[in-house]
Structures are given as C-alpha cells and as structure tokens.
Design brief:
Keywords: Membrane, Transmembrane, Transmembrane helix. Helices cover 55% and strands 8% of the residues. It has 746 residues and is of the alpha/beta class. It folds into 2 domains: 267 residues, Alkaline Phosphatase, subunit A; 406 residues, no CATH class. The strands form 2 sheets. Strands 1, 2, 5, 6, 7, 8, 9, 10, 11 and 12 form a 10-stranded mixed beta sheet that branches. A hairpin with an 8-residue loop joins strand 8 and strand 9. Helix 15 packs antiparallel against helix 23, helix 17 runs antiparallel to helix 18 and helix 21 runs parallel beside helix 24. The longest helix has 49 residues.
C-alpha cells in the first residue's frame, strides 16, 4: 500500500501520462494554436484604426453653388468653359444625394445639406416636387429675414429614424448668407432665422460686398431641365454665374459647385467641384476609408464646416473629405466619371433583370432535378431502368451554371455590357454566357468531374473572383449586375451583399472539402482556422472592409467548429455557439465604444445605439432590411432555394442527409454558411439578399451531391454503372466495393 501511494512514483506516472497525451495530440494541438493565433490577429484587425487626417487647410470663406441635377455629362469646355476651368484645378467627386428619401427632390437635397444628415421635406408618402424651390415661405419683418414653417420641418426630421437636425450648417458658422430660396433653406437656423439673405445674385461691387458679409455663402443655382435645349441655355446661365462668383471671391475663399438633387428617375451620381484658387492641377475628394473621388451630400456639409474650422455637431452624419492626388489626367478622370454614370444608369434596369434570370436558372435546375430524383428513388425496383445518362449530365451542367452564375455576373463587368444598345438584355446574357463557359470548363478539367471535385472547383472559383473584386474595387468596382455597386454605395469600399453571400458560402465549402479528408481530431481546428482567415479577408481595409461580413464569419466559425466532427444543429449547439460569438462581438464592441463618438466604428456605433445613444443605427437598419426583403428578387431566391433544400433534399429520400452523415464537415459548412450569410445580410441592411446569394451557390452543389449519393445507393454488381457521370464521387472513393441499400440513404 505504501508503495502504491509513493509520491515520487505517482509523479513519474503523471509525467509519463502527460507526455504520452501531448505526443499523441501534438498535431491537433498545433493546429488549434495556429487557429487561435489567426483568430487573435483577426480580432485585432477588426478594431477600427485611428482616422486618417486628410483634411485640407482651412480657408477664410466658402461659397457653395447648389444645382439640381448637375452631372459630369454637363461639364465640358464648350458649354461650361468657366466651370470646366475650375474643375481642371479643383477637387473633384461624383456625389450621391443621400437624403431621407430613396429619390432626392430639390428641397430634400437643400435640407440634407443644412443638416449634414439624411433629411426630407415632407412626410413619407407625400408627393415631392423636384422643380425649383419656391420662395413663398421666405418672409421679411422687423426681425429680419426668415423661413416660415422651418420649425415644422425640424420637428418632422427629428422624429424620423435618421434623427436629422436641420440648421447645423448655420449653427456651425458665425454668419451665413443665403442667395435664392434653396440657399435660404440651407443657411436658416433651426427656428428659420436667416443671417443674410438675397433673393437673387447681384453683380459687380454689390456681389463682392455680399460675399464679404459672412464666411459662408450658399447660392441656389436652380434646377437643370430635362429637355436638352432648355438644359443647354440653363447651363450657359449657370456658367456665367460661376464666372461672376469666381471673379468676386476673395483670395482665401473656396468655391464649391455641386449637384444637390435629382431631376428624373433613376438616381444618378452628380458632379461636385471645389476650387481653392490654386493652379496646380486637379485632385480628388478623399473620404477616410472610402473610395477617392466619391462623396455623399452629407459629407459635403462636414467638409464645408471643416474648411471654416468649425467643430462638427454630433448630429452631422457625414465625414469631412480631404484631397488626394489623382493618377489620371483631368480628361481621363472625366471620362471615368461619365462611364460610371452610364454604367449605373444601365444597372438600374440590368441588375434586377440579372437577379430574375438567376431565379429562372434555379427554377430550371429544379425542373431537371425533381424528375431525376424520382427516377433515382425508383431505380432500385425490379424492372425499372436507371435514369438516362443525358439527364444525369444535364442535371450537373444546369447545377453548375446556377452555382457559377453569381461569380460570372461579377466577371461580366469586364466586358462593358452597359455600352450596348440594350444593356438590360446584354448584361444578363453576358453573365449567362460566362457561367455556361465556366461550367463546361469545370467539367472538362481532368480529374475534376466528381461532386467533391466540382465543389472544390466552384468554391475556389468563387473565392478567387470575390478576392479579385475586393482588390480592384477602389479603381474599378465590380458587381454592378448583381446590385452590389449602386449609386447609394458608390463611395463605399465595403463588400456588397451578394458578393458577401457568395464568399461566405464558397469559403465554408472549401473548408469542408479540406477538413473531411483529414482525421476527425483535425476537423474542428481546420474549420475554426478557416473562419479566422475569412474574418481577416473581409475585415481588411484593402480587401473586403466589411464589419458585418466579419461578424457573420465569427458566429459561423463557432457553429462550424462545434459541428465539424458530427451531429445535428440542435438547439443547444446553436445557442452555445451563438453565445460564444456574441461574447466575442460584445468585447470588440465595448472596446470600440470607449472611443470618441466621431471615431467609433460600426460595432461601437451599434452598441451606443443599444445603450441609448440617438444614432438611429438600429432603426434605420430595420427599415432598410424590411425594404430589401420585399423588393429584392434575391429574397425570393432565398425562399425558393431554402424551401427546395428543406422540403426535398433534406427529406429521408432526398440524399443530402446521407451525404452529411458520411461527411460531417459538409453539414458544418452548410450550417455556418446559412447562419453567417443571414446575419451578414441583416447587418448590411439588405435583408436576406446575402442568404439568397449563398444558397444560390450551395443548393445546386447539394443537388449534385444528393443525386450522386442516391445513385450509389442503388449500385449492385455494376448494374447501374451507366449512372456514373465521367468520374467517381467521394462516395466511390470511401465506399468502394460496398453495396449500399436504399433504406440507408437517410
């Protein structure tokens, strides 16, 4: 007994046991350590960096000329020589009129400029006037000039989700002069009082005197008509006005000419030019962490106040823009702006058509897959012939075209479809042609024709295309046909919702293909490490720059690691993996929340809204999600694909459950992709668009897997060898020589 209780012997046995355990699990421990290091690096990168200071030097005065409908197509040396000369030596941008309405009319734009936040001129549902602003509400009495009804507009916008505070442009300066009705609304304070007001622009010395009254002068340049002849004469008058302002301004005064509103649907990007009097060539407006050369109307408010060395009120949602050198000449830059304008106008028709085409492709796949499924389930009965080989091949081709269509639509932007006479037809057909070519290429690659190989090919192709789109997004954004690159998102570097869903699905499928070939103890750390890589890619500023996508990967990683070694998505597993992801996100959000409000990222702003700050992040996100769910064709695709997977493929005779049972990492990948893409879509404010994109990649591949599993379930002594399409699947590799009964398919 004393010998058995000898302390030294027990210690030696314990050391040997620990050493043996470490030796046996050295590989998995090393993989877990690598995954933990990747996760730590991803978390550090997810925190927002210190904002870059690209703000130009302050000036003594700023003169702003706002024009309804002014685009870069209107500016050239012949029709607008003075404005063109200003642009050649100024800061340039294409501007998005981000008012509180999806289509910004004239007064909406002026109020948004006044507030520095999305504002509206009337209640939602009321008709808006996109003509010139009326001066009927501007009155003069013993107390000076004022705008009647301004307090009602202030109260209306305070009650909206954005919480815009009208009058911030006037509040940020010691004095502001308004010229014309639009200028009056922009420079009035929250009670409607005007510092200085002139109904029309004077000339000569009177103009110089007016400009010297206040550091800020806002001039209503009117609204450009749609009719070509009337527009030309209006542009000529506008150019003369700009020439007079340029001549009368002081030496240290900035002259800004910008579009403020739309004139006809669809939305388009407008022109913005800021000239500081220098003659050293042009540059681009540059927002921190955004695309150079692209601006929002709310950013223009912040830029004006910063130029005047005025502190930004907390209610101003925009960011002050600095200046960045342009690598292109002025003529080339204007050509890029013009091409972007044409491209986005064409996308207003082509993007919905492309998404509807994707739905048609999925319906075509089900039209082939549904009868094939029934033929496969009956094939084991005596006297029943196997499905014809051409139907099996048609099923695979149609599934591949459907799965590759999203990536093909991204690549279609390289072919300039928007320049065609009918871009709404040419664009979707270009994407379809690319998808068909890629599908046949995937089939013809030697040794890549089984379901496992096809899954690797499709997912790797999706990852490569998405990463390429991330890299070149600043110079040449892709995804126009998918609705990822729009007027509203023109300034953003963030990965679009459709590309986000495709990337999430592709990365998890590739992770599953890598994990199921490894021993069981390596599968969970491989899935966790892959998720950390996903967070790194989508959160990097020079790549995805998307916090919502990173959040989606964090939650998906917890779920994938829990399911990688087998088992179903039980409520307990879902809750615990979700809580782990939420704990990580809360820690990151709390760290970000401790920063000053102006420097917070998306996580800190969201947490601030939860804790009672009036950011409007949650309210505006709920509204945009509801709109996306009921207006985007991708939402219908998500419902159709999800229903087919749940009601057909996951039924006992569907085959997918058997594939998941044989290869647990597949179940983990599908679960993580569905949950992650759903979260990403809602955080992006796009509803279930990202989920629809992910399912568009996964469900066609699931159809191929399920049908191959069912086909193999009926193989007996090679009787149905004709059902094999060109190459064995992983079921063949793993279960060669076995005869699998129909009853075990579930």
């Amino acid at each position: 007994m004393a010998r058995n209780l000898d302390a030294g012997r027990l210690a030696r046995k314990a050391r040997k046991s620990v050493a043996r355990t470490v030796a046996e699990n050295r590989g998995p421990v090393a993989v877990w350590i690598a995954a933990a290091l990747l996760a730590a690096l991803a978390i550090i990168q997810l925190l927002p960096d210190e904002p870059e200071e690209t703000i130009p030097d302050t000036v003594d005065a700023v003169i702003v000329v706002g024009v309804g409908g002014l685009s870069w197509n209107d500016i050239d040396a012949e029709s607008t020589p003075h404005l063109s000369a200003l642009a050649e030596h100024g800061s340039l941008a294409e501007l998005n009129t981000d008012s509180g309405r999806s289509f910004t009319c004239t007064l909406d734009g002026w109020l948004t400029l006044s507030a520095g936040a999305p504002a509206v001129a009337g209640s939602y549902g009321d008709s808006a006037d996109c003509g010139p602003v009326s001066g009927d509400a501007i009155t003069t009495d013993a107390n000076g000039d004022s705008v009647t009804g301004m307090t009602d507009l202030v109260a209306l916008n305070r009650d909206l989700d954005q919480g815009a505070e009208i009058g911030m442009l006037a509040a940020g300066t010691s004095c502001a002069t308004g010229v014309g009705p639009g200028g009056a609304y922009a420079t009035a304070n929250s009670v409607g009082s005007l510092g200085e007001y002139a109904p029309n622009l004077p000339s000569g010395r009177a103009l110089a005197s007016l400009l010297s009254e206040c550091p800020l002068t806002v001039v209503d340049g009117g609204v450009l008509p749609v009719d070509a002849d009337l527009r030309e004469s209006k542009l000529a008058a506008l150019d003369e006005m700009i020439a007079a302002l340029d001549e009368a301004r002081g030496d240290d005064a900035a002259l800004i000419v910008t579009g403020v509103s739309q004139v006809e649907k669809p939305n388009r990007l407008l022109a913005a030019v800021a000239n500081f009097g220098a003659e050293d060539g042009h540059n681009l407006f540059d927002l921190p962490a955004e695309r150079p050369g692209y601006l929002r109307l709310t950013d223009l408010t912040a830029t004006i106040l910063t130029l005047l060395d005025a502190p930004l009120p907390e209610s101003v949602k925009g960011t002050a823009a600095g200046a960045a050198p342009d690598t292109l000449s002025y003529d080339d830059r204007q050509a890029v702006f013009d091409d972007t304008d044409v491209r986005l106008l064409a996308a207003a028709v082509a993007a919905p058509a492309t998404q509807w085409l994707q739905i048609l492709l999925f319906l075509a796949l089900t039209f082939v897959a549904w009868p094939l499924l029934h033929l496969l389930r009956r094939a084991g009965q005596p006297g029943v012939k196997p499905p014809p080989l051409w139907l099996m091949r048609l099923n695979i081709v149609s599934a591949l075209v459907c799965a590759l269509f999203t990536a093909a639509a991204i690549l279609a932007d390289f072919f300039g479809w928007w320049s065609a006479p009918s871009p709404g037809v040419v664009g979707p057909l270009t994407a379809l042609a690319i998808a068909v070519v890629c599908a046949f290429a995937a089939i013809l690659i030697p040794g890549r024709r089984g379901p496992a190989s096809l899954m690797i090919t499709v997912s790797a192709f999706g990852i490569i295309v998405t990463v390429m789109a991330m890299i070149i997004h600043t110079e040449d954004p892709l995804g126009t046909l998918l609705g990822d690159y729009t007027v509203a998102d023109s300034a953003s570097n963030e990965l679009g919702p459709v590309a986000t869903g495709m990337f999430i699905a592709s990365l998890w499928l590739l992770a599953a293909a890598a994990a199921w070939r490894l021993p069981r103890r390596y599968q969970a750390p491989v899935m966790a490490g892959t998720g950390a890589v996903g967070v790194l890619v989508v959160s990097a500023g020079f790549l995805g720059d998307s916090v919502p996508a990173a959040v989606a990967f964090i939650v998906g990683t917890c779920l994938a690691a829990a399911l990688a070694t087998g088992g179903w998505v039980t409520f307990q597993r879902f809750v615990w993996s979700g809580l782990a992801g939420v704990a990580v996100l809360f820690g990151l959000s709390w760290i970000d929340y401790q920063r000053p409000a102006a420097e917070r990222g998306e996580l800190g702003a969201f947490l601030g809204d939860v804790l009672g700050d009036t950011n409007g992040v949650i309210a505006s996100g709920v509204g945009s999600n509801v709109v996306a769910i009921f207006t985007s064709p991708m939402s219908l695709l998500a419902v159709l694909a999800g229903a087919y997977c749940w009601l057909v493929l996951l039924r006992p005779g569907g085959g997918l459950r058997r594939a998941w049972g044989l290869y647990p990492p597949l179940r983990a990948a599908f679960s993580a992709a569905v949950v992650g893409s759903g979260i990403a879509g809602f955080l992006l404010g796009k509803g279930i668009v990202s989920l629809g994109s992910a399912l568009a990649v996964m469900v066609p591949l699931a159809v191929i897997m399920s049908h191959r599993v069912l086909a193999r379930a009926h193989v007996k002594d090679g009787e149905y060898s004709n059902m094999i399409v060109d190459a064995p699947s992983w079921v063949d590799e793993e279960n060669s020589g076995e005869s699998v009964s129909v009853e075990s398919r579930g």
